[in-house]
Amino acid sequence: MLHSNLISLNVDGNEITPKGFQKDGALFKVLSKNISTLKSLHISGNTIGSKGVAIIAEISSSLEELSLAGNGICSNGALQLLKLSGLNRLDLNDNYLSGECVQQLQEIFGERLMELDLNEEEPDTDIDDDFEDEGKPFLVSFIYVSYK
Fold first, then answer.
1. What is the rounded CA–CA span in Å between residue 82 and residue 129?
2. Averaged pLDDT in 10-residue chunks for the chain of 148 residues
3. How many domains, the chain?
């Protein structure tokens, strides 16, 4: 059963891939059902890539806190987060962001956010921005869940 009053969800380190964000994926269902109440999403240490970030940016308009560290996100995916006008905390550490992307995110989000964590390293040019899952099952264990 999916609750519609979810305000915080932590799925760090659950091997979540872009497949979890397809319309029939479990995480997509949770996010879309809680679009107006979800304030905090921690999804660090997975492999959602830029495709997963684009979907988060489209369906999670109420987010105030977003942790996406270590997800194989490239610059074009990170820039999708500019659509989330309500964010006040963002963690994109340990992803593949170009120096130009980091600078743009700092300029736009810098004054608006209470906390912005970006890595300053140059991206690995061997990383494919269209990373696809290689058949791993979609695993979820809800470590921390809060309801209104």
1. 18
2. 77 91 83 87 95 89 93 93 92 92 88 81 45 36 37
3. 1
